[in-house]
Sequence to fold (474 residues):
Amino acid sequence: MTDGLRVVVDRDACCGSGNCVRTAPEVFDQDDAEGLVVLRQPEPPERLHGAVREAAYNCPAGAIEVVEQRPGGAA
Amino acid sequence: MTGMLETNVPSYPFGNDGLDPLLPHFAENGDGVGQVRLPTGQLAFLFTRHDHIRELLRSPDFSSDFTRPGFPLIRPLAEDMPRPDGSLIRMDPPEHTKFRRLLTPEFMIKNMRPLEPLIRQTVVDAIERLRAAGQPADLVEHFALPVPSMVICHLLGVPYADHDYFQECSRTLLAWKTPPEQARAAIEDLRAYLAGLVDKRMREPGDDLISRLATERLATGELTVDELVGLSTLLLIAGHETTSNMLGLSTMVLLQHPDQLRQLRERPELVDDTVEELLRYLTIVRTGLTRVAVNDTVVGGHALKAGDGVIALLSAANRDSDVFREGEEFDLHRGSHQHMAFGFGIHQCIGQPLARAELRIALGELFTRLPALALAVDPADVEYRDAVVFGVQRLPVTW
Fold:
């Protein structure tokens, strides 16, 4: 079984650079009013894990956290 | 770090001598951190490693406010330099957060897409004017400078007819040789010009950024007129100078790498990776980013005290061999997603979706429409700008 992955975003920390939307548009969006990160899917499928980790690494504000989860739900 | 002999302290900034950024001795030997001496005589700590700079620019222990004690000034300021209202690159949270959020939606990727036909038309028209100018022609004058200027004018609602004036002010402001008093006069001229425009847009709004802020954010008290003028000044300068320099330099680099240029022409889908690699390789903010520590803190294991000035040398980080193998080589297949050409931290370039769209469209059209484009000058004789932002002065080309 593969490990799961949960994404947590911090809109207070977000600076709206849009890097995450460019890197993983299926997982991240920006709202129209302030341009802050909107999470489209908190537990993205495995094929998106690479892009999500890259988005977290490249987030200039450090506003994206990736929580690796073991099978069975334990974080 | 503090025991270093003063005679070993290099003077900073290093200057623009060519495509390879000048790096201090401690960038390659040692741990990548060392002291430099600024034009004011002050010492500052220069960071060159990718991981250190990521940590530094994300840290809340540093301020971007140049009026704070200890702030590392890379050029002397006029004594009565006015405080730059609305210049968000010099603000800290929570003030910065408020201003940034007013602007972010304007530059979001999804809001840049509707602008792409206008960018493409601007590019195509500029190529036609370049052709009409006759060979050889200066690519900077006919293409690299007008394209981003026209696009940012459209976005902000600044009449492009005034371009000679604001480009001249901006050039004076950014040239190293400009004395502090004259730099202050140039920024005041630009602000006065934009104050006139803001006043006009308050009365006769159009469909543009300055009009939107003037009609929606002044009455609510979210912005003052001075702040709107400051924001507009910053966006006008940043919106045309940076992309313009990238276009001139990028054309030169691609022409010097004919194999890679051929691959790009054969496979236009490589343009996104090409743009990222050009951003990394060129890193036109050669002077790095300046900050002052506001708390005692640690970066990359180095202890810093409140009041210490620090500089993040982006051009060194973008060639750090731990992250970019053979980073001194231009390689459009590299997939340079980790570069920091737009900076890092909460001040990372707000206009990066616009810059990427302009570079992608402009370079794509230029090399498609002018298949025989060539330098009309020996690359060794290309003159670089003596300016805060790295670029070429002129780029004579034939086609």
